[in-house]
Write a structure and sequence with these properties.
This protein has 58 residues and is mostly helical. 34% of the residues lie in helices and 0% in strands.
Length: 58
């Protein structure tokens, strides 16, 4: 169900030069995103790093 919608979003923003996506490491997740033309940085000999602060000032 998400494939056609995600594909439409990627098509709409095809002019954007870079798209970054963080997802869990399940094989079905990787297969899904690769089917949309996204590549895994590990295939390029790269790693992606991030820092997240999940605290809120409520």
């Amino acid at each position: 169900m998400g494939g056609p919608l995600m594909g439409a979003v990627l098509d709409h923003y095809a002019h954007v030069m870079q798209t970054a996506l963080l997802a869990d490491d399940r094989p079905e997740q990787r297969a899904f995103y690769e089917s949309l033309g996204l590549g895994n940085t590990q295939n390029l000999g790269l790693n992606a790093f991030y820092r997240a602060n999940m605290q809120t000032d409520s």
